[in-house]
Amino acid sequence: MGSRLAILFLFVAGCAAGPTQTSVEPLEKAAKTYGQLNAISGVIEEANITPGGEHALQKTFSARRPDEVAVLIVRNGEPLEKLVCKGDTVTRLVFKDKLAVVTKGKPMDVAALVPGLRFFFHPESLTTDPFKKMKLIREDETPFGEAWQYESVAEVALPEGKAYQVQAGFFVEQSRGLIVGGYEKGIGDAANGRLMTWRLTEFKLDDTADLTLLTAPIPEDYKIQRQDGETNG
Questions:
Q1: Listing from the earlier edge strand, what are the strands of the sheet with 71-75?
Q2: What is the pLDDT of residues 77-119, one digit of tens each?
Q3: Cα–Cα dist 6/227, whole Å
Q4: What is the arithmetic mean of pLDDT over 162-184?
Q5: How far is it, in rounded angstroms, from Cα 44 to Cα 27?
Q6: CB neighbours of 198 closer than 8 A, spacing ≥ 6?
Q7: Contact of 152 with 226, CB cutoff 8 Å
């Protein structure tokens, strides 16, 4: 959930520097090529992204490894573009306004969205560091968990290689910390399409009953690169 965050890029050296444009095709047709899409088409239909975010997200993602991941961005059930990298790992990132980012590859347990889960910033933290403290809540305003203190390298006592899917972004656990992705502004503000990714040194969930887990592990050499060139990870 560091005080200044810029647009972040998932990247790996050697992969295509930018996306390859594709013609708009129905999701059903794309699913024949990207085999995992048919397993999550219902999830894509339920996802959404804040207006204005589509353009930025199209230019934000690149693959972690050229030999592992291919990324497809889908809006309203139709692919917008793809990064041409051979794929054998499946993971998924889902955002707001029926835009989704998915990857193709080996068969994986692809889970549904967590219903009614979102996050917001604690008002008391906004005067010093708006990303220092966040609170997870459900749509009915009941607590879900809290997170504190951004660090570029973090240690948290959470299982490795899991991902929590939420409406406002995504959480990815790994051995060195909890990677959290979302938007620069809190719930209720325009996201402006700027995807944020950061680490937490401390993370607490009130319960895990509503969590949906993805089983795709995050490689040890997984990197996050900011627009200013700094790499965390």
A1: 20-21, 78-83, 71-75, 99-103, 92-94
A2: 444 443 323 332 323 333 322 233 333 322 222 222 222 323 3
A3: 6
A4: 32
A5: 10
A6: 1, 2, 5, 131, 150, 179, 180, 181, 232
A7: no
Collapsing DSSP to helix, strand or coil, 53 comes out as helix
The string of DSSP codes covering 104-159 is: --S---PPPPPTTEEEEE-GGGTTT-TTSEEEEEETTS-EEEEEEEE-SS----S-
Nearest 5°: the CA angle 149, 154, 159 is 110
**C-alpha separations of 97 from 51, 77, 102, 194 in Å:** 7, 11, 15, 14
Looking at residue 23, what is its pLDDT?
30
Beta-strand pair 195-205/143-150? antiparallel
Mean pLDDT of 37-56: 30
Contact 80, 100 (CB under 8 A): no
Residues 6+ apart with CB under 8 A from 177: 151, 153, 154, 155, 156, 199, 200, 201
